[in-house]
Amino acid sequence: MDDIQPPARPAPGFLRRWLRKAVTLAIVTGMFGWFYGWASPWAFPKNHTADFKLGVLHGALMPLSLPTLVLGKDVLIYAPDNSGRGYKIGYICGINACGLLFFGAAFRRPKLTSANSDKSQ
Predict the structure, then answer these.
(1) Considering its fold, how many domains does the chain have in total?
(2) 77-86 contacts, C-beta under 8 A, 24 or more apart
(3) What is the pTM of this model?
(4) Which of the 8 DSSP states describes residue 64?
C-alpha cells in the first residue's frame, strides 16, 4: 500500500514575514495618506494658475493620493486651472521623477565589493 503523506506545512517564518510586510505596507500607506492630506491644500492654491513648477509637484504627489482616494476622500490630483502644455509637461516629469525615486530605491541592488566577489569564486 502507498503511504499517504500529510500536506506540506509552510516554513515556520513564512507567516511572520508575511504579517510584517502587511503591517509595514499599512503603516507606509497611512503615512502617505496623511502626508498627501497635509500637502494638498498647500500644493493646490485657490485662484492660482498652475504652471510648470506646480505641475512637477502635482505629478510627484499624484501617486501618494491613492491611499487617500481609496479611503473615500475626494482629493485633487490635477489642477483644472493650469497654464496648458507647460503644466502638463511638468506633471509628466513629476510622475516620472516620483516613479524613478520609488522604483529605483525598491529595485536597487547593492554593489558587490571585491571581498564579496572573491568569496563567490
Answers:
(1) 1
(2) 79/44, 79/50, 79/54, 79/55, 81/48, 81/49, 81/50, 82/49, 82/50, 82/51, 82/54, 82/55, 83/49, 83/50, 83/51, 83/52, 86/51, 86/52, 86/55
(3) 0.67
(4) G
| Residue 4 resides in a domain | no
> Is residue 85 a part of any domain in this protein?
yes
**Domain range holding 77?**
15-109
Is position 48 within any domain?
yes
Can you list the alpha helix ranges (DSSP code H) found in the chain? 14-43, 52-61, 65-70, 85-106, 114-119
- Cell match 502587511: residue? 22
pLDDT in tens, the chain (121 residues): 566 777 766 666 888 888 998 898 888 888 888 888 888 888 888 889 999 999 999 999 888 888 888 878 888 889 999 999 999 999 999 999 988 887 777 777 777 766 555 555 5
